[in-house]
Amino acid sequence: MWLFVVSDALTFATMLVVYTYARLANPNWPSPFHFSSIVQATVMTFILLTSSYTMARAVQAMKANDRGRAVRMLLATVGFGLGFVFLHMNEWFHLIRVEHVTLAANPWNEPLFGATFYGLTGLHMAHVTAGVIYLSIVAGAVARGKLGVEDVETSGLYWHFVDLVWMFVFPMVYLMSAKL
Amino acid sequence: MQSLTNATITKIWIGLLVLTLLEVALAFPRMSPVVFLVVLLALSVGKSAMIIGWFMHLRFEARTLTYVLIPFLVVCIGLLLVFLPDAERLRELRP
Predict the structure, then answer these.
(1) How far apart are CA A119 and CA A109, in angstroms?
(2) A12 touches chain B (CB under 8 A)
(3) Which of A1, A27, A15 is nearest to A115 (CA)?
């Protein structure tokens, strides 16, 4: 899992550098994230950080051989993950319907904005969705008495990595393009 | 070897929330994009170190794992960052 995390980190690092390059090279880079968008993105960040907290507690519960608590913590992590995806989809729909930002066009005539924004956040959202499915399966298996501490710890590594990526996406994408 | 406790996990979580609030607060005063980018990157690296060290447990693993993974990652990301100053050049080339 560590090797996967490192290789995936390089994929996200490349996408973040591309986004930041485009952002710095264009003096007219759009700032579509108003106060409400920043508040929503901050709540999303808090949700993801809290999901990492419950994931770490799930691993601790497994180490203490408390499977019931581990399952509850894993399900809480899944719930936070779903909440994050819901809020993120809400943000996307707002950008598409209200701000008219699509993959190739937007009202500010900076087509790279939509391509880089949806590419980066879409890849992250796909990772969160995959993580929600992965953790649901792990929670089910732990509840049935299958899987051990190492398995839950490995799934935790993936989930914390998804959280880690967002710690760069949130400031680089949202805060750097905030209109406050 | 020192092990992770629930109290430590809670402290790390609160620390991460506080650093996130600090990032958001820094978005209000108008800074130049380059200065703001550097400040945000520094805070993000700090938050990452907390997540990798405690939540991902790297601090409590064998040191060899850290020595194998982190320098490799830092060098590769450093090589990617080499291109960023070129963005400033492009900006100045614009009519």
Answers:
(1) 18
(2) no
(3) A15
pLDDT in tens, B56-94: 988 888 888 888 888 888 898 889 888 888 887 887 787
Low-confidence stretches of chain A (pLDDT beneath 70): 179-180
Closest alpha carbon to A168 in B58, B42, B17 = B42
Angle between helices A2-25 and A149-169 (to 10 degrees): 10
Residue to substitute from A4, A11, A17, interface B, most B β-carbons within 10 A: A17
- The gap from C-alpha A56 to its chain's centroid, in whole angstroms, comes to 17
CATH number for the domain that contains residue A88 = 1.20.120.80
For residue A164, give its domain range.
Answer: 2-177
pTM, full prediction: 0.91
Residue type, A133: I
Length of chain A measured in residues: 180
- Minimum-distance CB partner of B80 among A13, A53, A153: A13
Q: Do residues A131 and A85 touch, judged by C-beta distance below 8 A? A: no
Q: Is the pLDDT of residue B18 over 80?
A: yes
Complete DSSP assignment for A116-142: HHHHHHHHHHHHHHHHHHHHHHHHHHH
CA distances from B63 to A59, A109, A154, A160, B57 (A): 21, 50, 18, 20, 12
Structural domain count of chain A: 1
Q: Which residues lie across from A178 on neighbouring strands?
A: A33
- Interface mutation target, options B16, B50, B63, chain A, most CBs of A under 10 Å: B16
